[in-house]
Amino acid sequence: MKRASLVFVYAFFLTGCSENIPVVSPPNCDPALIETSAKHPKNSRYKAVLQKYINMGIPGLSALIYSPSEGVWVGAAGYSQLESKTAMHPCNVFMSASVAKLYHAVAVLKLQEAGRLNINDKIDKYIPSSLCDQVPNGHEVTIKSLLNHTSGIPNPTSQLKFLIDYIQNFKKHYSSHEYISFIFNKKPFGTVGQTYHYSDANYILVALILDQVYGSHAQAISDLIIRPLGLRNTYYKQEANFDHPAGLVNSYADFYGDKTLQNMSEEEQIFNKSNEGHDGMKFSVHDNYLFLKALFIDQTLLTTASLQLLQTEEKVAGLTGRRPLLGCFVNNTSSYTQIYHPGGTIGSANYSGYLPEQKAIIIICSNFGAAVSSDFSKAFLGPDQGAKKGTPYLVDDLIKTFMEP
Fold it and tell me: Which domains, and CATH codes, for the chain?
């Protein structure tokens, strides 16, 4: 194993101490957002929640909360770049991690509305038999089972062979076909439509299907979502400055579990650029809010029938807690129901959620690696990252603060 990839120049211990921090506002940022948020009735409470987790050692956070009665609140805490001590800004741009999956599910449903595919089609209608022959359940899988992770296809990024290969060289670029090759001829996790198993392969295959149907899955995301919604701080392959958009945060990881952060910005950029379908987008919290609002609240992205289909729960025997929808999940706590997608890579952590009963949107993004098991990842995503039941975590704290009178 190459150790060079595990030795990093920068290692910082964060203390959350107060000091004068230079603030750099990214382009395409509406100053009115900041001004109205400062006057929001819960501004101080929301900021206190973010600062609580910054004090624990998370490098930086940006969050947005929307409700029909209180409007939009957006705020930030910590650093976007530790090296220069640049403060996090509410309009900073983050790596999407797996939140990108919901965008692809929406693109698929829009193409179904246009009559260009049907989610009940088997994938071998669009993907060459030579590939389907080697994918577990390859000739039985439907597009729908890809979208809700009931295909039974193993997760390539969880395979030991992939993990060893990736750890040896964090700067390696993987093509979609290389990702899929890690699960060639593996045993499926179960019968299609009857077993839930989260797998990045599902959305890699979705991207390949969109390539076949639309010519380019990236163009489909741009044409069907980014441009119609006027998303100025969302980038997916086709957009100018995708490689390094203005306001992009640095990325950090706590590899040793001791709250020492290593700069993984270059590695995260390469990983983000490699990923298609399952990851690979960049956005600000406000742009992600505009997407969720158009989808769930304004209901202008999909027809009523398509949106209902997206939110229809796939009944899987024995599955409790987080249950799969199309491109996202539903979970019921004692206090609220959430439709959401979390995300985590070696340099990013995200939560993108809609509370249907309150018609509220909660978005939180950070620049540390939630895919690396650490106190940070558990403090951010809680049970979705293996935290013990009852342990306080950021997403729940912020939602509960929203729910307070």
Answer: 4-97+252-269+281-403 (no CATH), 102-220 (3.40.710.10)
